[in-house]
Design goal:
The complex is a heterodimer. By secondary structure, chain A is α/β, with parallel strands linked by helices. Chain A contains 9 helices and 9 strands. In chain A, the strands form 2 sheets. Chain A has a 7-stranded mixed β-sheet with strand order 1-9-6-2-5-3-4, sandwiched between helices. In chain A, β3, α3 and β4 form a beta-alpha-beta unit. The longest helix of chain A has 30 residues. By secondary structure, chain B is of the alpha/beta class. Chain B has 11 helices and 15 strands. The longest helix of chain B is centred in the first third of the chain and has 20 residues. The chains are: A alpha/beta, B alpha/beta.
Chain lengths: 263, 304
């Protein structure tokens, strides 16, 4: 905890309302999930700069945000020095009682462009899932596919000259195999949807997870480029994420079935 | 410099007057409210800023600068009268300033201008419009007064107008909105929410207002301290006890049994943060608070 490079004041609060005490509890909860329950393998961690602004951009995997939590854990437990990853939460999060102040204290803010911009200017490490809620809503059979990427992150990266570190996340889809999403029930609960698993509740199985960080991508520009240019850059990031997922699947297949070609 | 302060009876305004007097300025106050501890040397006119007698003060005394502090919150005055004070009063002040050749006006506004909403970004900059007014109608006249004051920037370009959107101020006397809320030993909060609050020690708030005068600022400025803190931490660090209540219950008990009262809609300010980016003011004036959050909270600490 003490090696986390955040400007805490005497009361253990940073200028954003991130609290050292809450982070300690949060990482304490994540550790058994990260190390024992999901036995997460983090590969390519050295691709993430140890300090300074950066954007982790990857795929959503699984009906609830376990992927984000495990990326946060990997940058704390396996990065040197540990870094706080700040996710951009769905807007509904900030209106939820209890969840809103707690996620805020551990650095997970509403996904607003203003927040992203200010956090990058503050040299923080941002985590972006450009698939958005459509990405977590992927069903089990779609778990290795990517839905369309939003483009806002690319304009921000260009505007702030932020390196993008693509990552591929595997295992979330198998841990929480979504067979259907209940949109109406979710709405009643103040959520975008409620994922349903074969055992009904979205409780994750202890499935091994992997996160693969790729080499940083640098894009030159101002952020005011034409949509077509931005789209082309975004496709490059998407291809990098898809490549990491594919590479990881091939590797995993080779590990489990030595001597056989990956399907 | 001859400085006129409408609303001089207010807790913060009295301290601004005292500081300016200490710095050797000539200070004239206007306020119909009665108050004791009138700062030595203050030339006080107990008149309403909207009345003829107030205009006479402008005409006869010809101030060089005006620090407009005659606005009130819905905690102090209810209903149409607040509207008349905040808007009618602000209009009168700016009219007189223009008519009687005042060179500089500092409008002391509030950071609550921006409003609290779940989908708002944390650090508000001066360019942003007010938010969520519909949920807190009692704030509308203060927002309107702030915007009206700002129109002086283009209506009277020769007059240097600065609009300060100041965060809550705290000091031992617990003046002001947050101070009043923290007056008791038990402070109610909304169960499930813990917004960030921003505050300045009142002595630093006085320094900021004096700096705005000295640096002859022109434009809109957020005035903030070092960093915001969660409400629960503010309550705990100042030696009080937080009482989390569900929203529907809180609405009923506020103002009873020693708990502070709040106007309708104010609960949104206990659920979502209003935090402003004070960089522009700091950069242009060199403002540096002398007391940090922790020292300020110790200053209002209750004996355990």
């Amino acid at each position: 905890m003490d090696r986390l490079e955040l400007p805490f004041n005497a009361l253990g609060m940073d200028p954003w309302g991130v609290s050292r005490g809450h982070l300690k509890l949060f990482y304490g909860l994540l550790e058994p999930l990260y190390r024992q329950y999901f036995r997460v393998k983090s590969l390519g961690v050295s691709n993430v700069p140890p300090r300074g602004r950066a954007m982790l951009v990857g795929n959503h995997s699984g009906g609830i945000a376990m992927d984000g939590a495990m990326v946060i854990a990997s940058m704390f437990f396996d990065q040197e020095p540990p870094r706080l990853v700040q996710g951009m939460a769905e807007k509904f999060m900030n209106a939820l009682p209890f969840a809103a102040p707690l996620s805020w204290r551990v650095g997970q803010f509403t996904g607003l462009p203003e927040h992203a911009l200010q956090l990058l200017q503050d040299e923080r490490l941002l985590m972006v899932f450009p698939e958005g809620a459509r990405g977590t809503a992927k069903l089990y059979k779609e778990r290795y596919s990517l839905v369309d990427f939003g483009t806002g992150f690319m304009r921000l990266a260009l505007q702030t000259r932020t390196p993008i570190i693509p990552f591929g996340f595997l295992g979330g889809g198998a841990a929480i195999p979504t067979v259907a999403n209940l949109y109406k029930v979710g709405k009643l609960l103040g959520l975008p949807y409620l994922p349903v698993t074969p055992w009904v509740l979205p409780v994750p199985l202890p499935v091994e997870m992997e996160v693969h960080y790729g080499t940083p991508l640098h894009f030159e520009g101002t952020g005011d480029e034409d949509d077509s240019v931005i789209q082309r850059y975004v496709e490059q990031v998407k291809a990098a994420v898809a490549g990491l997922i594919e590479g990881a699947r091939t590797e995993r297949h080779a590990r489990k079935h030595p001597g056989e070609q990956a399907r | 410099m001859r400085v006129l302060i409408p609303g001089v009876a207010g807790g913060l305004a009295r301290q601004v007057a005292a500081r300016l007097l200490r710095l050797g300025h000539e200070v004239i106050g206007i306020d119909p409210r009665r108050f004791w501890d009138v700062p030595d040397g203050l030339e006080l006119y107990p008149v309403d800023v909207r009345k003829r007698a107030a205009e006479d003060v402008f005409r006869k005394r010809r101030p060089d600068a005006v620090v407009h502090m005659a606005t009130v919150t819905s905690l102090q005055v209810q209903g149409d009268e607040r509207d008349r004070i905040n808007l009618g009063g602000t209009r009168a002040v700016f009219d007189h300033c223009r008519t009687y050749g005042v060179k500089q006006v500092v409008f002391v506004g509030r950071h609550t201008f921006y409003g609290a909403a779940p989908d708002a970004a944390l650090y508000h900059t001066e360019e942003e419009p007010p938010l969520a007014l519909a949920s807190f109608p009692a704030l509308a006249d203060l927002v309107a007064a702030d915007l009206y004051a700002a129109t002086s920037l283009w209506r009277d370009p020769s007059m240097r107008t600065s609009v300060l959107r100041m965060v809550y101020t705290l000091g031992p006397a617990l003046h002001g909105t947050l101070g009043a809320f923290l007056r008791g030993r038990v402070v109610p909060i909304v169960l499930g929410y813990d917004p960030l609050f921003q505050f300045l020690h009142e002595q630093d708030a006085v320094s900021a207002i004096v700096l705005a005068l000295e640096k002859q600022l022109r434009g809109l400025y957020n005035v903030a301290g070092l960093q915001p803190l969660p409400l629960s931490l503010i309550i705990r660090e100042s030696g009080r006890t937080a009482l989390p209540l569900p929203e529907f219950l809180l609405e009923r008990v506020l103002g009873h049994g020693g708990l502070p009262g709040l106007p309708p809609g104010a609960l949104s300010h206990l659920k979502f943060p209003i935090v402003v980016d004070g960089r522009r003011f700091r950069e242009e004036t060199g403002f540096a608070p002398t007391r940090d959050e922790v020292q300020t909270l110790h200053d209002i600490q209750l004996p355990r």
